[in-house]
Design brief:
Blueprint (H helix, E strand, L loop, with lengths): L9 E9 L5 E8 L11 H10 L4 E9 L2 H11 L2 H4 L27 H9 L2 H21 L5 E2 L2 E2 L8 H11 L13 E5 L4 E5 L9 E2 L5
Antiparallel strand pairs: 1-2, 1-3, 4-5, 6-7, 6-8
């Protein structure tokens, strides 16, 4: 089975930074569009995004590579054990696999990913994954480097941001949503009368589609 990520046009390492508390997430990504909106998929990053809002994060491409193989090798050096010790780092595992590991703890990529994913869905895999997650969470809590989250909701519920944090959030939002900073800038609606979607202006409109949205 071919690794579909190998066939992507762009391969790069990236850094996503929380502009409020300066916590950051490092990773790798393969895509056909540099503006696909992807800024990371780590669990701790997800919690941060949910708490502060995507608009309060900065995404930057660190370095581009010619192949997925080169990219995986680069991420191995980028996210090391030393980096994981940084209290501001949101990553949970060393680089080189996009977070996929086998039942023996080894990092997996390429064709092995499907097998690893299948294993984690088994009763044995699910149990092991849960145990590992609890150990990581316990260690992070003891170190004071991880906020605790309740299942299905955050411990943050019922609390409020300090006036200082609110001011910082306001500052980071200035200029967002205007001109080229608007995520929809340069896009237009097209429809095939069944569904509607947005494309970049200038892109070829597929056969059977037209400009505009579906009329309800």
């Amino acid at each position: 089975m071919a690794n579909i990520k190998e066939n992507k046009k762009y391969h790069f390492t990236y850094k996503t930074t929380n502009l409020i508390n300066k916590r950051y997430y490092l990773g790798m990504h393969s895509t056909n569009r540099l503006d696909d909106g992807y800024i990371g998929s780590g669990k701790r990053l997800y919690y941060e995004l949910n708490k502060y809002g995507k608009e309060n994060f900065k995404f930057e491409i660190l370095k581009q590579f010619n192949s997925r193989e080169q990219l995986v090798e680069a991420e191995t050096s980028l996210i090391s054990e030393e980096v994981l010790k940084d209290p501001n780092c949101l990553n949970m595992v060393v680089g080189g696999s996009g977070g996929n590991v086998g039942k023996g703890g080894e990092h997996l990529g390429g064709d092995c990913w499907a097998a690893a994913n299948k294993y984690w869905k088994t009763e044995e895999g699910f149990k092991k994954k849960s145990e590992t997650a609890k150990k990581v969470a316990k260690r992070r809590i003891q170190e004071g480097t991880w906020n605790v989250f309740q299942k299905g909701n955050q411990v943050w519920k019922g609390r409020k941001h300090t006036p200082e944090t609110i001011e910082k959030m306001k500052e980071t939002k200035k200029g967002h949503g205007k001109g080229i900073n608007n995520s929809q800038f340069g896009k237009c609606w097209i429809t095939n009368e069944v569904e509607s979607k947005k494309i970049h202006k200038g892109e070829l409109i597929p056969e059977g589609w037209r400009l505009g949205r579906k009329i309800k």
